[in-house]
Specification:
By secondary structure, this protein is α+β, with helices and mostly antiparallel strands. It contains three helices and ten strands, in the order H-E-E-E-E-E-E-H-E-E-H-E-E. The chain has a single domain, classed as Cytidine Deaminase, domain 2 (3-Layer(aba) Sandwich), CATH 3.40.140.10. Strands 1, 2, 7, 8, 9 and 10 form a six-stranded mixed beta sheet that branches. The protein has a two-stranded antiparallel ribbon with strand order 3-6. It has a two-stranded antiparallel sheet with strand order 4-5. The model has no long low-confidence stretch (mean pLDDT 89). Bound molecules: zinc ion.
């Protein structure tokens, strides 16, 4: 499973390689990576005023989320795992989706958990 997520993330053509796995009662529902594809629902305005709509890995799977699901977010680096804590924008969508449990990788290669 993580192999598939890693493959998806490392071949995404982006400078950052993130993958998100949506689970329901332990079963994998959807795997997504961050992409350069855009989505108007997930726009953000940067400090210089430009608008960008790149899809974060979390956003790619949140469309399929149901209340009570678990979300795992991982970031792959040449040397291993890296910090994949969801940004505040993604956290807002995660909360709205009813997800109760988020796990994400850290630069030390371990997982951290957020209970919502
Ligand atoms: Zn995000």
């Amino acid at each position: 499973m993580y192999y598939k997520a890693k493959k998806l993330a490392t071949e995404n053509g982006r400078p950052y390689h993130l993958a998100a796995i949506l689970r329901r009662r332990g079963k994998v529902i959807k795997i997504g990576a961050n992409t350069s594809k855009t989505h108007p629902r997930f726009g953000r305005v940067y400090e210089d005023g430009t608008k960008k709509y790149h899809m974060h890995a979390e956003m790619n799977v949140l469309r399929f989320a149901q209340a009570g699901d678990t979300l795992e977010v991982m970031r792959f680096h040449k040397t291993g795992l890296a910090m994949a804590k969801p940004c505040h924008l993604c956290m807002g969508h995660i909360k709205n989706s009813g997800i109760k449990h988020v796990r994400y990788t850290t630069e030390s290669g371990t997982w951290k958990e957020i209970r919502i």
